[in-house]
Amino acid sequence: MSLRLPPASCRLLAYASSSVRRSKKPKRHFASRFSSPLSSLRNASASVSTDFPIPGLEDEMVGYIFGRRKATDVAHSVWKHVVREGDTVVDATCGNGHDTLALVKLVAGESARGRVYGMDIQEVALQSASCFLGQSLGTQEMELVKLFPICHSKMAEIVPEDALVRLVAFNLGYLPGGDKAITTRSETTLLALEAAGRIIEPGGLISTVVYVGHPNGREEFETVQAFASGLSTENWVCCNFAMEVFPAYPA
Question: What is the mean pLDDT of the chain?
Fold first, then answer.
């Protein structure tokens, strides 16, 4: 298996039997991953090319395969190679604020510039995220964050029309530590993905982590897959990292 990364067309990895073809102009990128409650491999061995395309991602990928890293760890590693200091990015599912914090650190740099737009439909999530960010960021960095109590399907309403959005991040499922009955839903997630596709700049990335360990998780993952499959190959590069076999989910 060869994993290669044409600099003009893609900044992400796809498990494929052939390398991605070059493109004359930058494409938009879409990457999805799904996570399970447990990840385990028995009698497995890993062989990873020493010519890994994204420096630093090799350890995260191997760690994810063997259950030592979370899907969000892989996502954060990829973001580092896409987001630049001063960029505008969107956290479409703030949750407790951990992804938001990672994004702030990427866009702020030493100059404390950039902008992070975050949203969550649950007020308790925004309160948790705001408290976490307040404890983790300095005053200047906090000024880069704007949090909104809205559905991610309405992200276009809060992002300025002239903004060049470099990354839109989704972490789909339920709020860790919150009410597990309140989850993201396929219908609004599809609308959110469509909205993200309209605001992302060429060369940018839509990143999704889908938790399939709740009753609607598998359906939502299939919705994400269907959205990716329908994107134009002229304008998009789509990648999918997935654990195909894992233990049965707890009731």
Answer: 78
Q: How many residues does the chain have?
A: 251
> How far apart (Å, rounded) are the C-alpha atoms in residues 212 and 35?
6
Name the pTM for this structure. 0.78
- Sheet of 28-35, strand order: 145-148, 115-119, 88-91, 165-172, 200-211, 28-35, 236-242
Residue 115 in tokens: 């902008």
First-to-last alpha carbon distance for the chain, in angstroms, is 37
Residue whose C-alpha is closest to residue 81's, from 244, 204, 209, 198: 204
In degrees, rounded to 5, the angle at the alpha carbon of residue 238 between the alpha carbons of residues 147 and 156 is 30
Give how far the C-alpha of residue 141 lies from the chain's centroid of Cα atoms, to the nearest Å.
21
Please give the residue that has the higher pLDDT: either 37 or 117.
117
77 Cα distance to chain centroid: 10
* Tens-digit pLDDT profile for residues 9-42: 322 222 222 222 334 456 665 555 555 433 222 2
Q: Answer for the pair 115, 90: CB distance below 8 angstroms, yes or no.
A: no
